[in-house]
Amino acid sequence: ECDERFGMEDLEQLAEIVVNTLPREDDDAEGDGEEENGEEEEEGDGDAEMNDMFYDLNIALPEAAGKPNGSMSSQEWARVIQTIEQARELGYGVVALNQVISGKLTPDHLKIWTTMPNMSNAQLSWSLQTGKRTLKECGSVSKVSRNSIRVLRRVTALISEADHGHSVSGTATSNEYDLVAVRPLNEKMLMAASGGSWTNIDMISLDMAARWGFFAKHKTVGQALSLGYALEISYQGALDSSTRHQWVSNTAAVVRVTRGRNLVWTSGVQRAFDLRSPYDVTNLGDAVQLNKDLTKRGVSENARALLVHAFTRTGTLRAAVAVSENKRAMKEDGAPNKRARIEMR
């Protein structure tokens, strides 16, 4: 019928006009993309707090770094920097360099931190010149510049005697670290750590790849959880075929007694090659019957809560009030006026 009233050329021209006047999906997608890019550029100015911030709070330093007046060669520091760079590329926003010590913590242990080379795309929590801690506000931990990574420092004390624990609990030296962890070497020290014998610690770390010689009991671990301590699971032992079976057994026991609460998943590795992405770590929870949501919290929400707990050691008054100086509210003589800010935590 159409052929009788219109020629084929007329119909083809009409169809072309109709098609050209209809909106195309590609144009809409490009427009939306331009708007999203504009929003991202606005949000990219200055420091930004990532919604899905991932944490690896255990990048291990060499054993020699844990000795008083210890030293690290330029090659060893280069390996550490390479691991930090790899963590940034894998999507981590915050990492912690872990200094493992045996015996009492002394001021000489801090000297190693002044020998680290400067990193242009890393935000360190301490001064390379003085070795003193510079990160004083809890909110600054998650404020990381684009294409950068926050680097914290952590100390882990191997505890075989009670005196070793007291040296990392609330001393001037331990307060220079962003994270303080203890690793009990026997059941007696595990009970002491879980019961609050050393109040100013943040995390209890157990060697998941070793035979403990004792069981992780509900009562003991429950005391640690009630005090707000985190329990660490490092997946380093799962990478080695010789320790993988023991790692699965120990990790499954910790998951069972904690029900997945207050667990922080870390790498515990030194080499960049051994690092795994946050999503690989999430899948690793399947091996110990821990669902993906709880495992993901171990590299995100739980790690963030651990850093908040760590901040309360030095940045608050009895973990309730934090006082921060407002430079605009300071008088010329340096005394704070009524506008000095008191923040409730």
Topology:
Layout: H1 2-5, H2 8-21, H3 25-43, E1 47-49, E2 55-60, H4 74-90, E3 94-102, E4 122-124, E5 143-145, E6 149-159, H5 162-166, E7 179-184, H6 187-194, E8 203-205, H7 218-226, E9 230-234, H8 244-258, E10 263-266, H9 278-284, H10 292-297, H11 301-314, E11 321-324, E12 341-344
Parallel strand pairs: 2-3, 3-6, 4-6, 6-7, 7-8, 8-9, 9-10
Antiparallel strand pairs: 1-5, 11-12
In short:
The chain is α/β, with parallel strands linked by helices and 345 residues long. It is built from eleven helices and twelve strands.
Task: Describe what you observe in this structure.
This protein has helices spanning 2-5, 8-21, 25-43, 74-90, 162-166, 187-194, 218-226, 244-258, 278-284, 292-297, 301-314, and strands at residues 47-49, 55-60, 94-102, 122-124, 143-145, 149-159, 179-184, 203-205, 230-234, 263-266, 321-324, 341-344. The chain has 345 residues and is α/β, with parallel strands linked by helices. Strand 8, helix 7 (218-226) and strand 9 form a beta-alpha-beta unit. 34% of the residues lie in helices and 18% in strands.
Major sheet: size, sense and barrel closure? Answer: 8 strands, parallel
Radius of gyration: 26 Å
Provide the helix percentage.
Answer: 25-40%
Q: Name the helix and strand elements from N-terminus to C-terminus, one letter apiece.
A: HHHEEHEEEEHEHEHEHEHHHEE
Q: Let me know the number of strands.
A: 12
- What shape does the CA trace take? globular
Look at the helices and sheets and give the structural class: alpha/beta
The proportion of residues in beta strands is 15-25%
